[in-house]
Amino acid sequence: MTRDDTDAEVMITLCARLLEDQKIAFIGFGMPQVVAMLAQRLHAPQLVQVFEFGAIGPMPLTPFIRNTMGGSANCYRSLAWTNMNTIFAQAQLGLVDYGVLGATQVDLYGNVNSTMLGEDYARPKRRFPGSGGANEVTSYCWKTIIVMMHEGRRFVPRVDFITSPGYLDGTPGARERAGLPADTGPWRVVTSKALFGFDDATKKLTLTGVLEGLTPEAVLEGMEMKPLIAERVEVLAPPTSEELRILREEIDPARAITGRSAK
Fold it and tell me: How far is CA 193 from each of CA 55, 117, 237, 239, rounded to the nearest angstrom?
């Protein structure tokens, strides 16, 4: 069967399927917003979104307006409008089930870079927006989901800069020694080709699923680091016609987010 979905549509649908109804999710800027909107419209109508500036429980209007977070459409019917300190405190208290973030780089232990590329912070090869609330998301949420394009250069042995902590150096108790709550941290990495988790013992990135039509070897080709491979690798179904209809007709008809593919 011929598919006409984009890489972004694959990433968004795979990620949306992971979010559960009646859970609280700390939603990052951009693609994670579209992920949460799709989940709410499909299987998680009572998913409670929270945003770093203080909105709790919005039901964002469609179509999605790119580059907005605190606008009235994105915060429509919020249950409460608090402030940044309140949201981060709630996460620190263990009240937020999921975090959903984008990333520029991720390494073998789930550390996230969204700040800069290069070895010199003062003179980077390229600079990005940085953390925003992403550090607090990976620091305090029980399960953080990272969503990004599947490009080999994004998977590195060690990120150029730790914007948001994963399992740090991977040694037992590394997060706890850094002052982070136990049993928190990165949970899944979702790309346009695959799904990754983290090995319980080593905390290393682990391939757990590949998009239908691909092999684990094809997914891992070109990656700058080699993750583990689960004993059983799941075959991931591509976006359904209903998922694509909602994305294309309701959420993002301009294809500002969903029209992207890997370079």
Answer: 32, 24, 11, 12
